[in-house]
Amino acid sequence: MEFEDDSRATTYTTLAAGPDFRHELEIRRSRFITVLRRSPDEGAARSLVADLRREFHDARHHCSAFLIGPDRMVQRSSDDGEPSGTAGIPMLEALIKRVSPAGATDLSDVSAVVVRYFGGVLLGAGGLVRAYSESVSAALDLAPLIQRKRLRLCDVGVPHADAGRLENELRSAGFVMAETAYEASQAVLRVALEDEPEVFADADARVAALTAGTAALARQGTEWIDVPY
Among positive and negative, which fits the CA dihedral 134, 70, 44, 84? Predict the structure, then answer.
């Protein structure tokens, strides 16, 4: 499937697919419950706030921030009743400034909500900024992060009986595999490659060697693919 957008980014960092990630801090008797969700669009990000308002209906604040898009063009935050600038913006800054395992500040498609249960001790403006920033940063320190890369998909058609062996061989050789399609007459393996001539040449040679020259790569469109760090 051809990926169509006007993004100039070819890679960024995001949360690994899976359930929401949660982390809790207690700061001067207040509970700060941070929930992170992978959010490909604003609807997904805003649904996290709605979900947590229902779950933690007795909490005083549900502050939020999110980054959306490969180029991080969509950035939003909310203080949700905390003094202006003390919650949402520090949370957003923690997302924006997060350094990935590759050393880049490219986190995106992530929404964060910090649910606060007031503990009776006022933190002051500076204390709130530190608390909300620390809450998001501490959650990100532990959350599972992956790379999201825009890669060229290449199809390889092989007999059903050979599909498992070939897929394992290609994975062992370091190739990124997308979902295999099982058709009536054959299995179609999908290899995700960086769009560079030398990468294609290496993959072509590897497939030819592993199939005794009976199969070849057929170049398709580009897609965003999850790649572990």
Answer: positive
Mean pLDDT of 120-124: 92
CA distances from 106 to 95, 98, 117, 130, 223 (A): 9, 8, 31, 22, 18
Q: Which two tokens stand for residue 84?
A: 């202006």
Answer whether CATH 1.10.10.60 is correct for domain 11-143: no
Amino acid at 180: T
For residue 208, the model assigns a pLDDT of 93
- What per-residue confidence (pLDDT) applies to 6? 55
Tens of pLDDT, residue by residue over 183-219, are 999 999 999 999 899 999 999 999 999 999 999 999 9
DSSP 8-state class, residue 107: B
Q: How far apart are CA 38 and CA 40, in angstroms?
A: 7
Topology of domain 150-227, per CATH? Answer: Alpha-Beta Plaits (3.30.70)
Using an 8 Å Cβ cutoff, are 46 and 147 in contact?
A: no
Q: In this structure, what token pair is assigned to residue 82?
A: 């905390």
Neighbours of 135 (CB within 10 A): 26
CA-wise closest residue to 36 among 50, 51, 53, 48: 48
Contact between 215 and 156 (Cβ < 8 Å) = yes
Residue type at 178 in one-letter notation: A
Q: Where in the chain is the domain with CATH 3.30.230.30?
A: 11-143
Model confidence, pTM: 0.86
Residue with tokens 């490659």: 193
pLDDT over threshold 50, residue 117: yes
Show the tokens assigned to 159: 């007999």
